[in-house]
Amino acid sequence: MSGFEVVVLFCSTLLCFCFLRFLHKIWVAPTRLQAKWRSQGIRGPSYKFPHGNTKEISYMRSQFFDKPMDISHYVHDLFPRLHPHVYAWTKVYGRNFICWHGSKCQLFVTEVELSKEILMNRDDAFRKMDMEGYLRKLLGEALTTNEGQKWAKVRKLADRSFHSESLNSMVPEMRSSVAKMLDKWGSYQGREIDVFKEFGMLTIEVISRTAFGSSCMDGKHIFEMKEKLAALAAKNLHKVRVPGISLVVRSDDEVEAERLEQRINGSIMEKVREREREGELGSDYLGQLIRISHESDVKKRITRHQLIDEVKAIYGAGNYTTTSLLGWCVVLLATHTEWQDRAREEVKETFGGNIPDFEGIARLKIMNMIINECLRLYPPALSLTRTVAKETKIGQLCLFPNTNIFISVLALHHNPRIWGDDVHLFKPERFAHGVVEATHNNAAAFIPFGIGPRTCVGLNFSTNEAKIALSMILHNYKFVLSPNYVHCPIENIILVPRNGIQVILEKI
Ligand code: HEM
Fold first, then answer.
1. pLDDT tens per residue across span 127-166
2. Domain limits, the chain
3. Measuring from atom 23 of ligand 1, which residue has the nearest CA?
């Protein structure tokens, strides 16, 4: 055989091999996996090459995207609107079903017991999903997504930084950020103001001051870039790209995302170097992160790259979510003025004319019920995601690797079997005797902050911040929705109002 023939034979064998691998990935493996799920009674729309079911999902979602929602009858039925595919397919295929993102299998879970078993698992059977593309740039590889040692060493540090003693010392910073916002509101009396924008600024200022000792301007700069990146991520969420194609041709959105990522990283590194130059690392969360990046023990140390990502993660996790919570609380209180009055009365009784303090905040019962009911109807994080790391049995059900799991928080929070026929109504009184009673002994059906080892680090931080902000607003203002407000909740990574939240303020 001539040298040329050997090369041709080698190339054609290689091509054949690549083709067979490709065929296996896009056809054999998905079809087999689908059959395995079906054999256990877990059904779903059939796998389609190359998009899976993403086209149907995008179509269903587009039906609602810019359509306003009527809440004149106080019905907050968000599930069919925001997760139309989950709503429709649970009716056809049952409470848990599979569908396909390209050739990736997705298990959607809406059943309380199964959600709980997955989220509470400590055997490393279900891991955080690997973030790809835009989401990876947005969230980085940090606390929110890391696993094992890499996760554990920062989780301990974050728990300490955002736990109750540290929170006590953050109250003055939170109060003065709210006071600054309310000063500005003074010039809006009787006029319309978009409180969603205001809360965006407030929460970025609070997280900047308390966790990173930064001025609002530093935080705002990072926040604005992250917002643009989040918009790109949301726009491309249901698009399927041929694997590896980005290495050859990059879309305009990918180029823009890369540029934003580099600028965000640059801004954070500047802040870190500034502290290192001054030799004052600080005792806040950023200071703690810089310290462990200097650790001599490799096991305890984090890399510069991880440090940047950890900062990004807290900026991302800490402010969009709390902005969402505050925004929807105001919408609900503006439309249910009896609850606005009750909350104001409680604030007066608890603090008199004084500014909110840490002990008083813990005693706000009505406010707590309102916040819980708001988090139930409008959970900022609509789904929790995991991936099956190893074959695992839960009851009779076997969960297979190569499957991503989506637990629909929205489906759990809007399930009439758990919450009753008035499930779509704003009724804070359902939480009067705690979560266990509100859920009829199904506490895992109320998971706005998750459950299990990966529960939200900022749970107390954000509820304290929300209570302080709402107390100070209620003490100073009555508010109603502006006639220009259009109720249009959309999922932009988290739950946000599409057109802001315009209210009219009346000074008390
Ligand atoms: C209303 C406000 C908030 C909501 C609804 C919320 C929701 C959540 C949820 C649902 C998770 C769990 C995700 C999962 O199990 O996969 C989570 C995790 C996390 N949250 Fe929050 N969050 C809020 C505020 C905050 C704040 C203020 C911070 C930072 C100070 C924060 C930092 C984090 C971090 C770091 C994680 C990852 C924890 C881990 O995986 O170990 N969150 N959050």
1. 998 777 777 777 778 999 999 999 999 999 999 999 878 8
2. 40-48+68-507
3. 321
Residues 447 and 13: their CA atoms lie apart, in Å, by: 52
Nearest protein Cα to ligand 1, atom 41: 454
What is the C-alpha separation between 58 and 62, in angstroms, rounded? Answer: 6
Nearest atom in ligand 1 to 128's CA: 16
Do the beta carbons of residue 269 and residue 276 sit within 8 Å? no
State the distance from the centre of ligand 1 to the C-alpha of 449, rounded, in angstroms: 6
CATH, domain 40-48+68-507, list 1.10.630.10, 1.20.1300.10, 1.25.40.10, 3.30.70.260: 1.10.630.10
Nearest protein CA to atom 19 of ligand 1, as residue: 456
**Among 246, 200, 194, 239, residue whose Cα is nearest residue 219:** 200
In the structure, which protein residues have their CB atom closer than 6 angstroms to any atom of ligand 1? Answer: 143-144, 155, 158, 162, 313-314, 317-318, 321-322, 325, 380-381, 384, 448-450, 454, 456-458, 461-462
Residue 301: CB atoms within 10 A of its CB come to 13
pLDDT digits over 176-185, tens only? 999 999 999 9
